[in-house]
Amino acid sequence: MNRALFFRIFVCIAFLGMCLYSYLNVQNEITELRLCLPKLADEVRHLSEENTRLQYEIQEFESPENLMRISKSASFANLKYPTHQEVITLKQSSPLPRGQETQQEKSKHTPSVTFATGVGR
Q1: What's residue 90's pLDDT?
Q2: 118 in the Ramachandran plot: left (φ > 0), alpha (ψ -120 to 50) or beta?
Q3: What are 116's strand-pairing partners?
């Protein structure tokens, strides 16, 4: 009987030790993640600032004043606005087969697609 009681106490202490080890392991993982959070928050803030800076640069580059200045440079001197004769307009067909169009869809304006060919006539 003395051995059975000793064995039960040993099993209980071993189980308690495993539970305590598991709890400490989880706490260590949580602490490690908490230590990584400030680094990640700083990286997110840095990326956000970089994104804002790049958006500003894109807006500056695409501004009408900058585009006009670029169009006057020698590297873009060969480009020109197409004339009326150089523009081809194609009618876009309906994606539905002929029999499935409703009356309302037939009355809508058919969209057109415009292409500039760059070839004078």
Answers
A1: 81
A2: left
A3: 87
